[in-house]
Design brief:
InterPro entries: G_CP_dom, NA-bd_OB-fold, P-loop_NTPase, Ribosome_biogen_GTPase_RsgA, RsgA_GTPase_dom, RsgA_N. Its cofactor is Zn(2+). Pfam families: RsgA_GTPase, RsgA_N. By secondary structure, the protein is α/β, with parallel strands linked by helices. It has 9 helices and 13 strands.
Length: about 290
């Protein structure tokens, strides 16, 4: 029995890397009865002669869309224009990543094609998220040396890249690993979106680490997140929760709320708190599942 890590999954086959060798395997039939689906990123035990995965080791974390396990960080790529920078969408990505106990990193792209006023807005948000504790990088396609420096975020880590279509995810991967030659179609003038041609999940070498080359996150609806857990996904709210009068405080209508006081005092950004309330309402309005 040999141990390795699933690097790619295509059409029911799992490609397991063990040392310098790659093995094509199938999952055991018993996995279906046990409701176990091997994922890219899984550490597994397999029989290299028969080509069967025998066991999937416990996971540190799991993402559903894209289906990847044991991720160290998520690089959220957001563009300044085409598509326009959207703080609400960025916070939605951050909440989803935080809920999976994955470390987020923020890349803001296309800073070279915006006006001075827009640049001031982008720098404002850069400072805001840095104060919260997130690493933030402003990226320009005209600064190739800066792009090369970004490899420090990927070295010896397993990462996923998340973001809207057209924000530059594939372009970033091409810089980190030119041999990938990922295809990126022109941004549609009518939709303001780009199209990524990737259709399967695979961990590729990039920047001295592994990156999940995927079609991106397609589920951002908080269906598995409860209202009581939402505050844990906002670091600045999580930090102040113990100071609220009520242990179960949702920081909405409750009295003596440390979070609401911090918003009034300017210690928590009003935009972030507004997004928190919008997400809270979305979760509370969700239809119950049976």
């Amino acid at each position: 029995m040999t141990e390795g890590r699933i690097i790619k999954a295509v059409s029911g086959f799992y490609y397991v890397q063990s040392g310098d060798d790659m093995y094509q395997c199938r999952g055991r039939g018993v996995f279906r009865n046990q409701n176990i689906t091997p994922l890219v990123g899984d550490f597994v035990e397999f029989n290299e002669t028969e080509g069967y995965i025998l066991a999937v080791k416990p996971r540190r974390n799991t993402l559903v869309r894209p289906p990847v396990a044991n991720i160290d960080q998520a690089v959220i790529v957001s563009s300044a224009v085409k598509p326009d920078f959207n703080p609400l969408l960025l916070d939605r990505f951050l909440v989803m990543i935080e809920s999976k106990q994955v470390k987020p990193v923020i890349f803001l792209t296309k800073k070279d094609v915006i006006a001075e006023a827009e640049m001031e807005n982008l720098i404002y948000y850069q400072k805001l998220y840095e104060q919260i504790g997130y690493p933030v990088e402003l990226i320009s396609s005209k600064e190739p040396e800066k792009l090369t420096e970004l490899t420090r975020y990927f070295a010896e880590r397993v990462s996923v890249i998340a973001g809207q279509s057209g924000v530059g995810k594939s372009s970033l991967l091409n810089v980190l690993n030119p041999s990938l030659e990922l295809k990126t179609d022109e941004i549609s003038a009518s939709l303001g979106r780009g199209k990524h041609t990737t259709r399967h999940v695979e961990l590729v070498e990039a920047g001295g680490g592994l990156v999940a080359d995927t079609p991106g996150f397609s589920a951002l609806d908080f269906r598995n997140l409860e209202a009581a857990d939402l505050g844990e996904c906002f670091p600045e709210i999580r930090e102040r929760q113990p100071d609220c009068k009520f242990r179960s405080c949702l920081h909405h209508k409750e009295p003596n709320c440390a979070v609401k006081q911090a918003v009034e005092d300017g210690e928590v950004a009003a935009t972030r708190y507004d997004h928190y309330l919008r997400f809270l309402d979305e979760i509370n309005s969700r239809k119950p599942r049976y």
